[in-house]
Write a structure and sequence with these properties.
The protein has helices at residues 2-17, 27-31; strands at residues 21-26, 34-44, 47-56, 60-70, 79-93, 107-124, 128-141, 150-163. It is mainly beta. An eight-stranded antiparallel barrel has the order 1-2-3-4-5-6-7-8. The longest helix has 16 residues, at 2-17. It starts with a helix and ends with a strand.
Length: 164
């Protein structure tokens, strides 16, 4: 029993030493006046799960959880990757009247979608990294019957982050 308790007490230290967590910020978000941050938990040497959070001041926010597969078998979660992602988007819109004219009262709308992405991650100095990629997907509008029911997602990103 003492051995088990001793082993369990070292698990947080072992997990921290393996550098299984990443935080990142997308450089393109700055140019579009939004906050674009991410978190990834590395599952093993070639897989990770994570999420992006994108916030545009008082207009829109997006949450995009993903599963990522890395093709490199020598390092831990680096080099070329492919990913599958889900999309939840919440944004303001102006409804239309019966004649198709835009009304002045803004409402909040929601949309859900799925997508895929590809990219490349470069790890340097053992815990700093830069990644670049492209994501695309299809999104269904859930709340506004007077707007397009389906839309597209296209996201180009260059992120810098820290692995801990």
């Amino acid at each position: 029993m003492k051995k088990l308790l001793l082993l369990l007490s070292f698990l947080p230290v072992i997990s921290f030493a393996q550098e299984n967590n990443e935080v990142k910020i997308n450089a393109f978000g700055i140019f579009k006046s939004r906050i674009d941050i991410g978190y990834e938990r590395i599952i093993n040497y070639n897989a990770g799960i994570g999420s992006y959070f994108i916030y545009q001041w008082k207009e829109k926010y997006t949450v995009m959880p993903y599963y990522r597969f890395y093709t490199d078998n020598e390092g831990i979660a680096k080099d070329f990757f492919i990913e599958a992602l889900a999309i939840y988007n919440r944004n303001k819109y102006s409804p239309l009247d019966d004649n198709g004219q835009t009304l002045n009262n803004e409402k909040w709308g929601s949309s859900l979608g799925i997508g895929a992405g590809v990219g490349e991650k470069y790890v340097f100095l053992s815990n700093l990294f830069v990644e670049a990629g492209l994501e695309a997907g299809i999104v269904k509008n859930l709340s506004a019957s007077d707007r397009d029911q389906y839309g597209g997602l296209f996201r180009l990103f260059i992120s810098a982050g820290y692995r801990f």
